[in-house]
Design goal:
The structure is a single chain. The chain has 207 residues and is mainly α. It folds into 2 domains: 161 residues, no CATH class; 32 residues. The termini are far apart. It is found in: Cell membrane. This is Membrane-associated phospholipid phosphatase. Its main location: membrane. It comes from Bacillus inaquosorum KCTC 13429.
Amino acid sequence: MVLGLDISEVNISLFRLVNDLGKEHPFLNPVFSFIAEYMVFLLALSVLFIWFTRDTDNRIMILCASIAFICAFTIGKVAGAFHSNYQPFVELGEVNKLIHKEKDNSFPSDHTILFFSYCISFWLFKRGWSILWVLLAVLVGVSRIWVGVHYPFDVLAGVLISLAVSTFIYLTFPKLKVIQTTIKIYEKCENMLLYRFKRKENKSKNF
């Protein structure tokens, strides 16, 4: 019981440390609010762009990253059934709450799971400069604390779940025949559609 209390106190202290920075440096609040709410659109556009490069290795990476996210998100929901806490702005006073958020279970952070599932996968497959994706995921995790909607342990749990799942998927799934087959079937269908589209386009030009 004492240990549980200590962990809770550490969680709150770390939250205050980050969240209070918004009060000390208010000029940064719009930046972190944007990252916390809208960076997800950048991730979505990036996933689509990488997929439509039509590179098979890139598509295997996106497919594995998506599987990692689905698995990590599911594990997160199971973890949330065993442990739950409301957002800091619900449980604590004088929270620097910068974005709208409904009252619900904030453990673990879904945003963190989403970003780390994809960004860790990108780095595992590509390495090198792909570490910037991981740094972006870290920034998103910090932003969720900064704007007052998650505790540090909500974010940390999301990181650990995503890291474990993404690594497991990376080490096992690309070697599975079903992954290769799925990509080949998709690319075959895509090529057929492109061929039909080009034929229609050529016919319309001839007329």
